[in-house]
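User: Please fill in residues for this 85-position structure.
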């Protein structure tokens, strides 16, 4: 997918409140912004919960991909929706 943006000229600034990111068809495009949380201390008693939440998030993502028609194959092919990952 090609992504274009409208905002502060030719310089992409993700903090520009006027920035509008659009996909190929001119519709708004979701641009995820993961945050680095590695500096947040995690109590030992929560480590198991965090691991389970991560596993559940991955399973939800995988279910969505399978629902969209993706399946395992030795070679990645976007047209046929196959992936070795």
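Assistant: Residues filled in for all 85 positions:
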């Amino acid at each position: 997918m090609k992504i274009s943006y409208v905002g502060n000229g030719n310089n992409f600034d993700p903090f520009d409140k006027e920035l509008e990111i659009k996909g190929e068809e001119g519709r708004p495009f979701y641009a995820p912004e993961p945050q680095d949380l590695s500096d947040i201390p995690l109590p030992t008693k929560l480590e198991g919960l965090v691991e389970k939440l991560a596993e559940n998030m991955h399973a939800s993502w995988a279910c969505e991909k399978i629902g969209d028609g993706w399946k395992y194959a030795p070679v990645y092919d976007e047209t046929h929706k196959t992936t070795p990952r």
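For context: The CA atoms of residues 4 and 10 lie 11 Å apart.
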